[in-house]
Design brief:
This protein has a four-stranded antiparallel β-sheet with strand order 4-5-10-9, with no helix packed on it. A four-stranded antiparallel β-sheet has the order 8-7-11-13. Strands 15-22-21-18 form a four-stranded mixed β-sheet, with no helix packed on it. It is of the alpha+beta class and 471 residues long. The protein is 15% helix and 30% strand. Strand 4 and strand 5 form a beta hairpin. The mean pLDDT is 94. It is built from six helices and 29 strands.
């Protein structure tokens, strides 16, 4: 285009300063003159505004390669007394972030110093004050304690089949003001909203009569609202910034309820193969699952993998969608019993041969650790290693006996007893519990728990040993 157009004039200056690769963002406050029918298409500007913005942003990225973010302002209602389609234009600006993941939207509603078209000097300073927290966050990494952008409507839907209540879902927490009821229009008709409330990011509007099934909703009309009002009739976020206005928003039907069917889970045994969960939602939507204790069982999709003996709660949930509301989650207890020695020995991963070297007192790798002890300590029965053996050490005045107990060997699979004494003829037994008790400290883990026995023995000589038996 012309070398002296608005776009070209700015680009020429940036080129001259050799700063094309130094531009990191765009602050965009524009649109007052697009409220009418001056588009090159001959139609109303708002209909082509989005595409022109997309085309312009593509040119920005070409001319300023390191441009990373857009901060866009929704224009004021009836700016400079222009129209008649500014309500629709502002709604196009509201929805621009759906196309840009790197865009923030602000407005200048309730910014002191507005004159109806431009701002006073103090007004522009106030505009900058509203913009600064966004710039600090996006460009300088300063994390704000609360949202610093204008609340954006995400969706609107009837809360029931009666269509006398509308829920407005925003992108942040909201604050209700009864003065704002005058600014809502159902199918272009005002006065239908009688009251409202805010809970979290949802504003609920109560109507004086049922709306049509195909009704639309507007918030704040050019032809009625005045920036000079003595008492604000705006809807605000909890961050005290007014919400963006919206126009011709389709009110979705009320969400249908759904329920989850999730049968009780049969007990499992450690070493059992992964298994599938089979909960269903009455909506036919996919059910998701979580495990309260992922050390006992992990879940991927609908497949449960058992990791150790114990118990965990499996929760089935369905978050809903545009048609169905979220289902009430359903919990089921999963109990995983310890593996028996025989199930461990017969597992092909151990490499034992039935009837040849799979007995509890066999020692096929000849490392002095018989199979039952390998089972208890998490060893490999055909790989010679003594690294798994318990250790006895001095800690201050105490003696400490420690070992890693395989989750396979938890009660009732084995009974484990630590015996200690000052000589090899007199032994004091300590039965190892499932969890910490007395002089025994159990640190849970997977696939082994750590067992630490602090022996009440003094002197420079102590003997200790681990004895393991089956039921």
């Amino acid at each position: 285009g012309s070398l002296y157009g608005i776009y070209a004039n700015l680009l020429n200056r940036v080129l001259g300063a050799k700063l094309t690769h130094g531009i990191r963002g765009v602050f965009w406050h524009q649109g007052e003159s697009n409220s009418g029918a001056d588009a090159p298409t001959g139609d109303f500007d708002y209909k082509s505004y989005q595409q022109y913005f997309v085309d312009m942003s593509a040119a920005w990225k070409q001319d300023y390669p390191n441009l990373g973010r857009y901060i866009v302002f929704q224009v004021m209602p009836k700016p400079c007394s222009l129209g008649p389609k500014n309500d629709e234009l502002r709604d196009v600006q509201r929805t621009l972030p759906r196309l840009f993941s790197n865009m923030d939207i602000l407005n200048t509603l309730a910014v002191p110093g507005y004159l109806g078209c431009h701002f006073t000097i103090a007004g522009y300073q106030n505009m900058a004050a509203r913009t600064l927290p966004v710039a600090n966050h996006r460009y300088y990494g300063i994390v704000p304690p609360a949202p610093v952008t204008a609340p954006i409507l995400q969706r609107a839907y009837f809360t029931s089949a009666a269509r006398t209540s509308i829920a407005l879902v925003f992108d942040q927490a909201m604050s209700w003001s009864s003065f704002s009821t005058v600014n809502y229009y159902v199918d272009d008709v005002g006065g239908k909203v009688t009251s409202g409330s805010a809970l979290g990011n949802v504003v609920t509007l109560q109507l004086n009569s049922a709306a049509a099934p195909t009704a639309t909703l507007d918030y704040l009309k050019d032809s009625i609202w005045s920036f000079g009002e003595s008492t604000s009739s705006l809807l605000y976020g909890a961050n005290t910034i007014p919400a963006l206005t919206f126009a011709d928003v389709v009110i979705e039907p009320a969400s249908q309820s759904q329920t989850i069917t999730f049968s009780a889970l049969p007990p499992k045994t450690y070493l059992d193969a992964p298994f599938a969960l089979a909960a269903t939602a009455s909506s036919g939507l996919t059910v998701s699952y979580t495990s309260l204790d992922p050390l006992v069982a992990s879940i991927s999709g609908n497949t449960v993998t058992i990791l150790k003996a114990g118990s965990t709660t499996i929760t089935a949930s369905q978050a809903g969608n545009g048609t169905y509301s979220a289902a009430t989650p359903v919990d089921q207890l999963l109990t995983v019993n310890p593996a028996s020695y025989s199930s461990w020995a017969s597992n092909s991963a151990q490499g034992l041969t039935p009837g040849v070297n799979d007995g509890p007192l066999d020692d096929p790798d000849r490392d002095g650790i018989y199979n039952l002890m390998e089972f208890t300590l998490g060893g490999a029965p055909i790989v010679s290693s003594q690294a798994i053996l318990p250790k006895l050490s001095k800690s201050g005045v105490d003696w400490v006996f420690e070992y890693d107990r395989s989750d396979y060997s938890l009660t009732p699979a084995t009974t484990q007893v630590v015996e200690y004494g000052s000589n090899l003829t007199g032994w004091t037994p300590v039965t190892i519990p499932t969890t910490t008790a007395g002089i025994v400290t159990i640190t849970p883990g997977s696939p082994s728990d750590h067992v630490k026995v602090t022996l009440p023995a003094s002197g420079n000589q102590v003997f200790a040993r681990l004895k393991v038996s089956q039921p």
